[in-house]
Amino acid sequence: LFVTDEAGQVGEDSVLLVPEVNAAPECEFSSPIDGSAIRLGDRIDLTAGATDDNTDPAQLLAILASDRDGEIWAGNPTSAGVVAQAYTPINGGEHVFSLTLTDPVGLVSQCQTSLYVEACVDLDHDDVSDCDGDCDDDNAFIYPGAPELPDAADNDCDGLTDEGTIYVDDDGDG
After folding, report:
1. Which of 74-78, 79-83, 119-123 has the lowest mean pLDDT?
2. How far apart are CA 49 and CA 41, in angstroms?
3. Buried b (16+ CB within 10 A) or exposed e, 40-56
């Protein structure tokens, strides 16, 4: 900066201006765990943390969406930076959930997590899903048509226990 007074004398000085750099907000999902799976119809809790070095998280615009079901929620995180929404997926298959954050200056960031929504599951890998009538999908020896074993379980999913084994008098003759 140069200044000239009325007598023609010149003075000089400088000022260093350092603009504050605005960084984009950041986010991270804590739930669901990336790559996990649920059954269609089960409710999940979508939870993420939102931070911004320049802004109170409650001033951020947050949009939570699924690539398969569309927008789930829009609003502001809490001042602690928490975004939490209970949700029941509408469609089966692989879902990529995204949280998009926009700060007051317009900077945008996004984080994602994936979840597989199983329409019919076979958790015990016996080639019979719960949609096919598997009455105990945690036990590979129990499914419709399985041999009945004398084990106090309904192995063949017919509503009867241990029929046709030496422990049950199927014909009632004693």
Report:
1. 119-123
2. 26
3. beeebebbbbbbbeebe
Summary mean pLDDT of the chain: 90
Q: 0.85 exceeded by the pTM?
A: no
Going by the DSSP 8-state scheme, the letter that residue 104 receives in this structure is T
- d(CA 162, CA 147) in angstroms, rounded, equals 10
In degrees to the nearest 10, what's the CA dihedral of 139, 140, 143, 147?
-110
In 3D, which of 106, 96, 116 has the Cα closest to residue 37? Answer: 116
Q: Pick the most confident of 15-19, 40-44, 62-66.
A: 62-66
Q: What does the DSSP assignment read for 106-161?
A: --EEEEEEEEEEESS--TT-SS--GGGT-S-TT-TT-STTPPP-SSSS-TTSSS-S
Spatial distance between the Cα atoms of 117 and 133, rounded to a whole number of angstroms: 19
Residue 82 has which token pair? 């928490």
Cβ pair 73, 85 in contact under 8 A:
yes
